[in-house]
Amino acid sequence: MTAGRQCRLLEGNAMKSAKRMVAAAVSLATSVGVLGLAACGSGNDAQEKNPSMIKIWDYEEQTGAQGKAWAQAIKIFEKKTGVKVKFEKKSFEQIRQNASQILNSEEAPDVMEYNKGNATAGLLASQGLLANLNDYVSQYHWDTKIQGALADTGKYNDKGIMGSGDWYGITNYGEDVMMYYNKNMFDKYGIAIPNTLPELEAAMQKFVDNGVTPLSEGVAEYPLQHLWWQLVLQKANEKFIQAYEMYDGNVDWQGEATTYATQTIQDWVKKGFISKDCTGSKAEDAGQAFENGTHPIFFSGTWWFGRFQNDISTFNWTTALFPEAKKVVGSSGNIWVIPEKSKKKDLAAQFIDITLSKEVQNLMGNSGGLPIAADPSAITDPKTKELISSYNTVLKKNQLGFYPDWPTSTFYDELNASLQELVNGTADPKTALNQMKTNYDKGVEAAGVKHKEAN
């Protein structure tokens, strides 16, 4: 779920530039087992000899595409290596709030699903809490499968800024945020699925006229901030995105893009498109409200797709990109990281490689996910084929616009707090944007990075 799933962040001290080097490992295709892997060496990192168990953490739902695929990867890993997996499912919030403390302790897992971006994986990498994966990337040839925008979220420089530097995370799927429509509810009220933004607003007004709140939202976690960012992207250019995400130039917080997005959210609340009562709702609340048929529209990530396929049986639903989107909220999927304290890095890397195997990737695709290394001919579900095709088009058009909480380690919660005030009416758009700017600038300064001067 990134939804993202989400989602996200940790308070941290000023970023440090400590780095670690880790072991190389032979590719899965030529692997001769665990003992052979141990001979590959781990540089200066002590690796446990003849381990009998590795510990894996993730926060995927078992019925979701990633959950199903990674469960299969665990079976393959155990059969191939003879090493047992101690799997521990955590909530996104558990990992988000406690990652730095856990990874700096002996309780750290050997491999962990983690959120990507400057403020999350970048922060931990810069603090020396994540293993440098460069040698594993070379040995397993992961960089032949993970390229372009998908690779950006796995690489971080010494300041923890994504897009360049060393590899600290490996993704095996993609994600973007899109519209989920309850077709039965649209048909019930004689409303067409919208193709343009005016059509979307007209459709939402018809639902309101019939006593239905159209958008399933949550402000306590990520759903509304993703909608806000999508509205920003409707007006933002590439220069704005680079300034906001990569500190390349100055961010105009009272400019057209941010003002339009913030004013639109306020307008949609006033019109009843978004309920004022959603300020305390979490992502799971919003997702379940769509699943239960309470609201006809849900704007959230592809991480819900497989779950909805599995769980929704009482109505027909469809998906589409946000109307008239030039850029799309999204990126690679979450990343596998190997904690620096792990003494089983070679085994952890072998497990990661299995998640990129055709068997696991094809299963993910046929379970409603967005695999990055599947055999297209092996994907049999028409709805999933359409999803994958849409995402591939987004990649080809360079439409990924990343996520709004990435720039600083505290901005996820701060952005939600500003949007909560906007929704409940205690802050107007200008005030909310000033709050965002203050928190953004404070976080960037605490991270020890500086915006480049705008050209």
UniProtKB/TrEMBL annotation:
Any Pfam family the entry gives: SBP_bac_1
SUPFAM superfamilies according to UniProt: Periplasmic binding protein-like II
Gene3D superfamilies, alphabetized: Periplasmic binding protein-like II
InterPro entries the record matches: Bact_solute-bd_prot1 (IPR050490), SBP (IPR006059)
Name the UniProt record assigns to this protein: Sugar ABC transporter substrate-binding protein
Organism encoding this protein: Bombiscardovia coagulans
Record lineage: Bacteria, Bacillati, Actinomycetota, Actinomycetes, Bifidobacteriales
